[in-house]
Amino acid sequence: MVKTKVIKKARSIAKVYYSASKKTKKLLKDTSGALLAIAKEQIKQASSAVEATSDLVSAHVARRYKKLNDTGKKILDQVEAKLGGEKISGRIVSYYQDHSRALPKGKLSKPCEFGVKLKLDMSGNGYITGHDIYKGNVSDVSLLSGSVDSHARVFGSKFKSGAADRGFYDEDLIEELQKKYKISLAIPHKKDRSRVMTSQDKKLSKKRSAIEAKISEGKRMCGLDKSLYNGFTGDRIWAALSVMALNIRKLLRDMERSPELIYRFG
Fold first, then answer.
1. Which partner for 195 in 123, 183, 189, 260 could form a disulfide, CB atoms 3.0-4.6 Å apart?
2. C-alpha distances in angstroms, 108 versus 1, 105, 111, 112, 138?
């Protein structure tokens, strides 16, 4: 009954903002402040109730209260700071998945997604050779060295070339990696789209586009669109299972065309 009453009160306040014809900053600040006051009062009451009945609190209730006391208070602090005009970095966007972050695409036409960032490395024959997930919207270029280093460790002298999209472009870093591993990296310039690529780089870039289809297959067939496990560790496990499923699908297709592949596992 108490929960229902609080939710109704919060919804009525939120409705004031969403039903307003002019959604001004002042209206947003006022309604947000009123919702913040309700949340603070509920945490205060929950703390009093737990303290008064500490001997009777079950392990399940204790875990839920700890979550409320930790994550809930962090969310309230960041809302209060935002209302005070501060810029919030690493903003918590989900109470239940507090490791998730906003992942804006950088384009107004693209919707903002929430979660963790997944990086996939693919070999020339269509298998995922490396993957990792990251908290927050880390820049693509910061992941380039790790991907190239990992690929070089796995494939050694067989690693001759690579390609990535323009988000990974860093001229100095590209030159450094090419000299270090004696490879060719085809990455379009981040801003200057008029810069001409060599015919070899164009072929590599065209081949790289195949990973877009692989990502689409992963989302449609192997669960890469949404993790159903909890926490950052759960997301790691889910990503690993999805990548394994993708590679198994690819292997089965290859074995259907060339059954003799099975003898390589003997």
1. 189
2. 42, 8, 7, 9, 19
Cβ-Cβ contacts under 8 Å for 211 (sequence gap 6 or more): 120, 122
**pLDDT at position 148 over 70:** yes
DSSP structural state of residue 78 = H
pTM of the model: 0.82
DSSP classification of residue 188: -
pLDDT at 232: 95
> What's the mean pLDDT in 26-47?
93
The token pair at 139 is 């820049």
Q: What is the pLDDT of residues 134-147, one digit of tens each?
A: 998 899 999 999 99
The amino acid present at 81, given as its one-letter code, is A
From the list 209, 202, 165, the residue with the least C-alpha distance to 187 is 165
Q: What is the DSSP string of 32-65?
A: HHHHHHHHHHHHHHHHHHHHHTTTT--HHHHHHH
Q: Comparing C-alpha atoms, which of 203, 196, 134 is closest to residue 163?
A: 203
Surface-to-core class of residue 222, CB atoms within 10 Å of its CB (0-12 exposed, 13-18 middle, 19+ buried): middle
Q: How buried is 167 (Cβ within 10 angstroms: 0-12 exposed, 13-18 middle, 19+ buried)?
A: middle
Residue 151 has pLDDT above 90, yes or no: yes
- Residue 184 pairs in a beta bridge with 161
249 HSE (CA, 13 A, CB side) = 14
Task: Find where tokens 């002042």 sit.
Answer: 26
Helices vs. strands in the chain: H and E counts, helices first? 9, 6
Return the pLDDT at 2.
66
Q: By mean pLDDT, which of 2-6, 130-134, 254-258 is the weakest?
A: 2-6
